[in-house]
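Researcher: I'm preparing a figure for a lab meeting and need a structural model of a single chain. I don't have an experimental structure, so a prediction will have to do for now. The sequence is pasted below. Please return the structure as tokens so I can convert it later.
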Amino acid sequence: MNKILVSGKVEGIVLKSNDPINFLGTVDKKTGIISDKEHSLFEKSIKNSILVFPSGIGSSVGAYTIYSIKSNNTAPIAMICKKADLTVATGCALANIPLITITDEEFESIKTGMKLSLNTDSTTLIHYQ
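Model: Understood. Here is the structure written out token by token.
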């Protein structure tokens, strides 16, 4: 079942990873570029994307990283996860980045490059365009 953790309304292009994201060790705070050579999004920028990934991993300091990338204007405009851990939920709440969780089936249907609108005030959270 879909769950709203941080509300908002955005429209943008999906950047999807099937790998969990450790914001503290994977994302460059100044550029928003994934710096972990082992990550599927290596050298890609999360800036201004709708970032879709299964879950966050890592320490609670990752929440500060999410806040930092928002402060540096290098953050995604929204995040969509299958499971939102405390780090991602806290970081998105601090940075006011919309965050929802979705089912496995919906996660599988979303692909990089898709254009989506996300509206937490709507009965249908995600609209595919």
